[in-house]
Design goal:
Blueprint lengths: L6 E5 L4 H5 L1 H9 L4 E5 L11 H14 L4 E4 L11 H14 L3 E5 L6 H16 L16 E5 L9 E4 L4 H8 L3 H4 L12 H18 L5 E5 L18
Parallel strand pairs: 1-2, 1-4, 2-3, 4-5
Antiparallel strand pairs: 5-7, 6-7
């Protein structure tokens, strides 16, 4: 059995984590933590690229993000449903990887696959800890579930400083050449690569400003956060 994963991100499609929490994954990997991604679909319904292209691009992006592992569950793209079968499939992977922290998409999103990925992920984290659930492996439940909220109209519970990781995160995102290089199919739907980079930098700059950093990634947790030492809290009040 391989070493447990410290931080696991779950997303609906290849390139989702690169857009939402890639900087945090890179920062964790640089600190010596084992990081991984589970993409629920191969993005086969996308206007651009084939599933085979997107899987190859996901592997290249994962290497850029310093991931220890990346997996795809091959659930149906654009038809993702929060079924028991889907939850059990992800729960089995969580038991296999044994993550301490799981990052999920925020639970409200315009794309149906994104909010369903959040539901599937949250419930799978719970199911993975049920001893009597017959999905193989030893029961395991992550200690912490975080929700990436960079595209949500939600006040973050906290923001991670990714000032040193943003450019690597962009390099990882643009490994998806089928999605971000200029090409005729879907030209009216897809912004230019430079515009995508500007949008990401702008969002990251906004959240970085909130913690007195250049760039940041926001997260929400459902439970209260604990502070052990108020004297050592970060971010000055004035």
């Amino acid at each position: 059995m391989s070493r447990p994963i410290d931080v696991l991100a779950v997303a609906a499609h290849p390139d989702d984590v690169e857009q939402t929490c890639g900087g945090t994954l890179i920062r964790c990997a640089e600190r010596g933590y084992r990081t991984a991604v589970v993409d629920l679909t191969a993005g086969e319904m996308g206007t651009r690229g084939s599933p085979e292209q997107r899987l190859a691009e996901a592997a290249a992006a994962g290497a850029e993000m310093l991931l220890a592992e990346r997996h795809n569950l091959h659930l149906p793209d654009a038809r993702l449903e929060n079924t028991l079968e889907a939850r059990k499939k992800l729960a089995a992977k969580i038991r296999e990887l044994r993550p301490r922290v799981v990052i999920l998409p925020y639970w409200e999103a315009r794309h149906p696959d994104h909010h369903r990925a959040s539901e599937i992920g949250s419930e799978a984290c719970f199911l993975a800890g049920l001893k009597k659930l017959d999905i193989g492996g030893e029961p395991h439940r992550p200690l912490k579930v975080l929700y990436s909220s960079i595209y949500a109209d939600a006040r973050p519970s906290f923001v991670v400083d990714i000032s040193a990781q943003l450019e690597r995160r962009l390099r990882a995102l643009f490994r998806y050449r089928s999605q971000y290089e200029t090409r005729p199919e879907g030209a009216d739907l897809f912004p230019e690569q430079e515009a995508v980079a500007e949008r990401i930098r702008t969002a990251a700059r906004h959240y970085g400003m909130l913690i007195h950093a250049k760039y940041g990634e926001p997260f929400v947790v459902r439970e209260m956060l604990k502070v052990d030492d108020v004297v050592k809290m970060g971010v000055p009040s004035f």
